[in-house]
Write a structure and sequence with these properties.
Number of strands: 16
Strand order of the largest sheet: 1-2-3-4-5-6-7-8-9-10-11-12-13-14-15-16
Oligomer: single chain
Distance between the termini: 51 Å
Strand content: over 45%
Largest sheet: 16 strands, antiparallel, barrel
Helix content: under 10%
Structural class: mainly beta
Order of helices and strands: HEEEEEEEEEEEEEEEE
């Protein structure tokens, strides 16, 4: 009987060891460390990501750096600096029960969010300037599906009398991992559009409609991305193309991802 107990104990230790090793080597929580973007003309720019655990500390690019501040696991401030550490912009994020309700870029703009019962998010954006009253720029609705940001529909408010301008951008996705999704609190930042999604945007469609004097003018632009992935289904390369509906000219950008 004692020998049988010893065998069961050894088997338990073996199973626990395998489980522990499996967790230590789990690649489902990769964090993006570096991005290299190369333009059509061959100019390459490198952006570095720094972390404390899975908290994003900074994004350091060629011309500027963004520093992030957390409170209770949520990103509550982003400070934008140039390469000589001069302050360019400060953005504050406010939450209610873990949901983003306000974004304020000091001296620039303010966005108010309302989370609806149907899982959409309504918003209003105001421009703000020192000594001047707020001016409502736009209002709209954000749509989500399968943890992806799929559409932003908005109406521009600061337009000439008798003119109605509608704008929408929609996204189609792959089924692979977004390299930014594992960053703590990042998916709460509704002002980052498709970057907060669980997957990667393959096609984005931008439609603008202008109504004036009973005439409607519409335009559309399409942006496509093609990806290469690693063995863990994270993108390692993206090639982006802008297909302009008006003139047919396209621009290309290659992005390489390092973890």
């Amino acid at each position: 009987m004692k020998k049988t107990k010893n065998i069961f104990w050894l088997l338990s230790v073996f199973v626990l060891t395998l489980y522990s090793c499996s967790n230590d080597n789990d690649d489902s929580m990769k964090l993006l460390k570096k991005v290299v973007e190369t333009s059509e003309s061959g100019i390459a720019e490198t952006t570095l990501f720094a972390y404390n655990g899975n908290k994003l500390i900074s994004i350091d690019g060629v011309k500027k750096r963004s520093d992030f501040t957390y409170t209770d696991g949520l990103i509550t401030k982003m400070t934008l600096l140039n390469k000589t550490n001069q302050l360019l912009e400060t953005i504050n994020y406010s939450y209610l029960e873990g949901k983003l309700v306000e974004v304020i870029s000091l001296g620039n703009y303010r966005i108010k969010y309302i989370h609806n019962s149907d899982k959409t998010v309504s918003y209003e954006k105001f421009s703000i300037a020192s000594g001047n009253p707020e001016i409502k720029e736009s209002n709209g609705t954000l749509y989500f599906q399968n943890e992806n940001f799929i559409k932003d529909e908005r109406i521009l408010d600061n337009t000439a009398s008798g003119t109605l301008i509608k704008y929408s951008v929609s996204f189609d996705y792959d089924t692979k991992y977004n390299p930014l999704y594992n960053i703590l609190g990042y998916k709460k930042l509704l002002d980052y559009n498709e970057e907060i999604s669980a997957n990667n945007s393959l096609i984005s469609t931008v439609i603008t409609s202008v109504s004036k004097d009973d005439q409607i003018t519409s335009s559309a632009n399409f942006y496509t991305n093609s990806f290469k992935y690693d063995i863990d289904n994270y993108p390692i390369e993206r090639v982006s193309e802008n297909n302009g509906a008006t003139n047919g000219n396209g621009g290309y950008l290659k992005t390489e991802y390092f973890y």
